[in-house]
Design brief:
The chain is mainly alpha-helical. Among the domains are: 85 residues, no CATH class; 122 residues, Tetratricopeptide repeat domain (Serine Threonine Protein Phosphatase 5, Tetratricopeptide repeat, Alpha Horseshoe). It has 29 helices and no strands. It is globular, with a radius of gyration of 28 Å.
Length: 573
């Protein structure tokens, strides 16, 4: 079985550490619930109670169905009838943060007693007070959080920005930040925020030194690179800033479309409000949590940052990427669509929107969007990658091969050799689908020479040889190696069994094809192969069972592995 290679277009932009673990909260004396509706009159209690239970059940179903943001309204309606249900109140708060309704989440957070407070509920109250200019109160709440986690970097950073807003001199804050015992992974983040503090204090030379250090420590951080380039440009070093951004884009093609043109117009002086500072700290917290794989809390934190700084397009862009990772295609599309009017990020947003529409099955709109973008940015590598992949997915294999070739001819030196392997593999797959087997074999062998232990390339090349009846012994050896490298990969296990089948070795063929069917029970092609092997062994009832199971999957909407596969199954049956 052959799996089509997919090109990765999202780079790792910031490192993560284990320093962002969630904790429960503090404080006491919760005020009355403010977001619930008024209590009903006694004559209405029975009907309202029924309505409340119904609303809760509807919310719970949506929640369990993986659509928690849609459950928020139902939970709030249920809370109107049962405002003392603390567990429901806490879950409603979490969902409101997931959906970006931070104001109502903060209202709920204020009603939670001490034992029900969480890191996020308390942090939401801290940043809201800071946003409102109530710095003393915000710092007081922040001290409670720091008692919980006195060494947690995001809390210490948030507290530093609140102290700045409260009049503490930047020299004092920088000294305190530099004295914190942080891991090496966080050192770049520390210097980035030191740079921000110096910029706020009107000390660009000190800011440049800190940001340059941060950029050395975090060469893949888009935020550090952008702030360093902007600071250079403000100091009149536009050429150096432009070169910095060009080098960054060359090393990180996934963000190529997100780079500003610093030579177009003079930049205004650096300015950041308390809300901006708190947003920067909360956003960093979100990235750390994201790096640990906690997508839900990361989404809540990014929503909080975006609420604090709604004009910060990069926050919205990263939130949309996070929604993509969680396969919330509608949510991601909505966020990218909002960025289409952003003068800096509209091209990057259009690219991602096209990718999302393709994922949603709207190939026509996706192709239209990526075509518009290619005409506007014909030299952008990330655009040509997307065009190539979409052409492949649409079955235009000749166009896909041309685009992969264009990319290979223009690979920056920093992208070799891994990117060349990826492109050779992808172009070889396009040639194979276009039945240009000579070119396909040439590219796949070239990729294998550069990456001899890549199980996917071994599988693809070997399967192609098997299907054409060529070099069966060599193909079998490749698949045996691939299976050792990736023993749980059902596609590779299937290919190995299929090789034995083609060589009339039914014993090992059945062994591996049965294993492949266990590993990938929803693959029509694997089930069909197993049916073929049973038929060849004279086990016709077993063969019919697996052919029928494969056909049933097609009728449920599973995509055909190749044109005519369904007709072939029906003939066998």
């Amino acid at each position: 079985m052959v799996l089509v290679p997919l090109l990765l277009v999202l780079g790792v932009l910031l490192s993560a550490t284990p320093e962002s673990r969630a904790m429960s909260g503090v404080d006491a004396g919760a005020p009355a619930l403010t977001v619930a509706q008024e209590r009903v009159q006694p004559a209405q209690v029975d009907a309202a109670a029924v309505d409340g239970i119904a609303a809760y059940l509807q919310g719970a179903i949506l929640d369990l169905d993986g659509r928690p943001e849609r459950a928020a309204g139902r939970y709030l309606a249920a809370l109107a009838e049962d405002p003392d249900n603390l567990a429901l109140r806490g879950r409603a708060l979490e969902i409101l943060l997931l959906g970006g309704d931070v104001p109502n989440a903060v209202k709920l957070a204020k009603t939670l007693p001490a034992v029900n407070q969480t890191t996020l509920s308390r942090l939401a109250q801290v940043v809201q007070l800071g946003q409102q200019g109530k710095i003393k109160q915000s710092r007081s709440e922040m001290r409670r959080l720091l008692k919980q986690a006195p060494t947690l970097w995001p809390f210490l950073l948030t507290d530093a920005y609140l102290q700045y807003a409260d009049g503490v001199k930047p020299e004092v804050l920088v000294r305190r930040l530099n004295q914190l015992p942080l891991t090496s992974v966080l050192e770049g983040r520390r210097q980035y925020h030191v740079g921000r503090l110096w910029l706020k204090a009107g000390q660009p030379a000190k800011a440049l030194a800190a940001l340059a250090r941060a950029q050395q420590l975090e060469p893949a951080s888009i935020f550090t690179t952008l702030l360093l380039a902007e600071t250079l440009a403000r100091q009149g070093q536009v050429e150096q800033a432009t070169a910095l951004l060009a080098d960054f884009a060359g090393r990180n093609p996934a963000v190529e479309l997100l780079m500003p043109d610093l030579g177009r117009a003079p930049l205004p002086p650096f300015a950041a409000s308390t809300s901006d500072d708190l947003a920067a700290a909360v956003f960093d917290f979100g990235l750390l949590v994201w790096g640990e794989g906690a997508l839900g809390p990361a989404r809540q934190l990014l929503n909080m940052a975006l609420w604090l700084a709604p004009e910060q397009g990069y926050y919205r862009y990263f939130l949309a990427i996070l929604l993509e990772m969680g396969e919330d295609w509608d949510g991601a599309a909505q966020e990218y669509a909002r960025l289409m009017t952003d003068p800096l990020l509209h091209d990057g947003a259009k690219l991602r929107l096209a990718e999302v529409r393709m994922r949603q099955g709207d190939a026509g709109l996706a192709w239209q969007l990526i075509g518009e973008l290619q005409r506007a940015r014909p030299a952008a590598h990330v655009v040509r990658r997307s065009v190539a992949q979409m052409a492949f997915d649409r079955g235009d294999y000749n166009r896909a091969a041309e685009e992969y070739g264009w990319l290979m001819d223009r690979l920056p030196a920093s992208m070799l050799p891994a990117a060349k392997v990826e492109l050779l593999f992808a172009r070889g797959a396009a040639y194979e689908r276009d039945r240009d087997f000579g070119r396909a074999e040439k590219d796949l062998r070239a990729a294998l020479q550069l990456a001899p232990n890549n199980p996917q390339i071994l599988n693809y090349l070997a399967y192609m040889l098997i299907e054409r009846g060529q070099n069966l012994a060599e193909a079998l050896a490749m698949l045996q190696k691939a299976h050792v490298l990736a023993p749980r990969d059902g596609a590779i296990t299937d290919s190995l069994g299929w090789a034995y089948f083609k060589m009339d070795k039914l014993g090992p063929a059945l062994k591996y094809l049965e294993l492949a069917a266990e590993q990938e029970p929803e693959s029509p092609e694997i089930l069909s192969h197993l049916g073929d092997a049973y038929a060849k062994a004279g086990r016709l009832e077993d063969a019919r069972k697996y052919w029928q199971r494969a056909l049933d999957l097609l009728e449920k909407g599973v995509e055909e592995p190749f044109e005519g596969f369904g007709r072939q199954l029906r003939r066998k049956l």
